[in-house]
Write a structure and sequence with these properties.
3 helices, 6-stranded antiparallel beta sheet, OB fold (Dihydrolipoamide Acetyltransferase, E2P), about 240 residues, 5-stranded mixed β-barrel
């Protein structure tokens, strides 16, 4: 009898492990629901056309209530394993804002737009999905100054060993965005500390405010575009 019970327990353990392995294999962060675009299809879609995408929230700008529109809005940096999306002022009730958190899956319906080179989803609504996924920063240092860089627009990226050329506060004093000039191999690029993303109380805002010209830094951020690359900085390290 003891031997029989031992065999049953062993079989149960095998089936449990197999079930766990199957559950893990079933989750594919790149998988799309029916009627949802792949990133390739989204990238190929015409401007002003309706788009439906699924992606995972990586960060948000602060929720706010638009009294003129009569509803709440939130701006989202989202990504899936194939690409990234900037979802501008997505319709979101305050009660639903806790569903739009880093890692959360959302299904977004809106219109593909472009402003100053930044491709984004506008007039969007969303539905909460199941599963979580967080992107790791892609090292894009070697892509600076190349035409390939824009193909990774809105992804979380990193750049190493950039030289600080200078910083400038929007409106001339702390509290708003910080414009950051960083160079690599003699070419200067524009970066930004977006105050709605990383505000004056954040560590990165304070760290950037203390940068000195000539310092060498590593930077992480979202590959935003404004008349050229204009990465929204989320972390910075002085070397």
């Amino acid at each position: 009898m003891k031997k029989f019970l031992a065999i049953l327990m062993a079989l149960a353990m095998v089936f449990t492990m197999a079930a766990c392995d199957t559950a893990e294999e079933e989750f594919d962060p790149a998988a799309k629901s029916e009627g949802v675009m792949t990133y390739e299809e989204y990238a190929a879609a015409a401007l002003d056309s309706e788009v439906v995408v699924e992606a995972y929230v990586q960060a948000t700008q602060g929720w706010w209530f638009d009294s003129d529109a009569g509803y709440g809005k939130i701006t989202v940096y989202a990504q899936d394993p194939d690409g990234a999306y900037f979802i501008y002022e997505m319709k979101c009730d305050e009660a639903d804002a806790d569903k739009v958190v880093p890692g959360a899956k959302i299904k977004v319906t809106g219109y593909k737009g472009e402003w100053a080179g930044e491709v984004e989803i506008m007039d969007a609504t969303f539905e909460a999905g199941e599963g979580t996924w967080t992107a790791e920063a892609m090292d894009a240092t070697s892509l600076l100054g190349t035409e390939e860089l824009i193909q990774h627009q809105n992804k979380l990226v990193s750049f190493s060993s950039l030289v600080v050329e200078g910083i400038e506060y929007k409106n001339g004093e702390p509290g708003d965005d910080i414009y950051v000039s960083l160079s690599k191999n003699g070419t200067t690029y524009s970066f930004c500390v977006e105050s709605y993303l990383t505000g004056p109380d954040s560590d990165v805002y304070k760290a950037v405010g203390e940068l000195e010209a000539g310092s060498v830094v590593d930077v992480t951020g979202y590959l935003y575009w404004y008349e050229g690359v204009n990465t929204h900085i989320t972390a910075i390290e002085v070397k």
